[in-house]
Structures are given as structure tokens and as C-alpha cells.
């Protein structure tokens, strides 16, 4: 592992980016397992996949984290909203449609 300032060639930079990409994929797989567990819990509680207050809480958290790390908040929000939508779609495949759940989640 090299710090960015210690990379002296494009091969060094590419190796570190590949390492980080592999780690990110691993984190996404771990996040998906939590999404699957959330779907199980929501099914038992009669909750919908999408709970708007939670969506906005997650977005606010990642925007704040992006700001602390000097990243563009709007870009990070866009990426996370796509991740959230994917996660909700994954939950919905397990929960199925239920109008009563939608009312409880509001």
C-alpha cells in the first residue's frame, strides 16, 4: 500500500485504485447483507422498504461526511441516492408490494 504522494508511476497509482475498488466492492457486498437483514426485519414489522425519513437521514449523513473530507457534497449525494434506490429495490424483491406497509413507513 502506498500513500498517494508515494506513488511515482501510473502503475503505482493504478495498483492502489484497483486495491481500493476491490475494498469498495467488498463493502458493498457487506452493505447488501445488512439490506437483506433489514428486509427480513421490516417484513416481520410490516414496514415498507422505503421509509422517506430514513432516506433523508442517510443522505444528510453522507453529505456531512463528504463535507468533512473535502468531497463535493452534491456528487456524493447523487451516488448515495442511487445506492439507496438500489437497496430499496433489493428489499422490495423480498418484501413484495404492500400498501399497508407504505402507510406505516410514512
From TrEMBL:
Q: Cite the SMART domains for this sequence.
A: CM_2 (SM00830)
InterPro entries per the UniProt record, alphabetical: Chorismate_II_sf, Chorismate_mutase-related, CM_dom_sf, CM_II_prokaryot, Isochorismate_pyruvate-lyase
Check the record and name the Pfam families matching this protein: CM_2
Report domain Chorismate mutase positions.
4-95
- Mind listing the UniProt keywords for this protein, alphabetically? Isomerase
EC number per UniProt: 5.4.99.5
Task: Supply the name of the protein.
Answer: chorismate mutase
Instruction: Please report the organism this UniProt entry assigns to the protein.
Output: Albidovulum sediminis
